[in-house]
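[audit] Reproducing an earlier prediction to check determinism. Same input, same settings, fresh worker. If the tokens differ from the archived copy the diff job will pick it up downstream; this log only records the rerun itself.
[audit] input (189 residues):
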Amino acid sequence: MLIGYARVSDSSQTHALQMDALRQAGCERIFVETASGARADRAELAKLMETVRPGDVVACWRLDRMARSLKHLIQIAEMLREREVGLRSLTEGIDTSSPSGRFLFHVLGSLAEMEREIIVERTRAGLAAAAARGRKGGRPPVLTEAKLRAAKAMLAGGEMSAVEVAQQVGCGLSTLYRHLPGGRGGVAA
């Protein structure tokens, strides 16, 4: 039996491309998951592993859909091999049920891991270069210095509650409290 496995990392992504490819490949059953590949405790992958029988082949769209690291991918492939189950990647054209497929699997798995490491390295270098030029990453602060001064003045006037002041300056109450001396700064909500 050809059994499919489709995974995306978060709910903002879609399984459609993978599902179409797995159906077209002839998968009789497809396990679908939304979880980080770095997680070892993926429920659908565990169900898949319980379902497979000797002679089955597990198909995935790409190897990085099975696991995030080469080590984990090799562990999965080894567990499947011990159960006499093959692993087929539709995109990379790998099928571990043959010696040449197993060899190619290890080579491409290494290249995929190297690619991820290079991306992480470039991202870190880019962030460091931006920081060296004085640019900070992340979201801009909601409560600017000007808004904080205005909020303090409104609170000192005593005519508005902290909730009303937070609404007036366009921030949440906890954000306002976080920027006041001593947390709440003696202000009641």
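[audit] rerun output stored. Observation attached for the diff report: The beta strands are 2-8, 29-34, 57-60, 86-89, 94-95.
[audit] end
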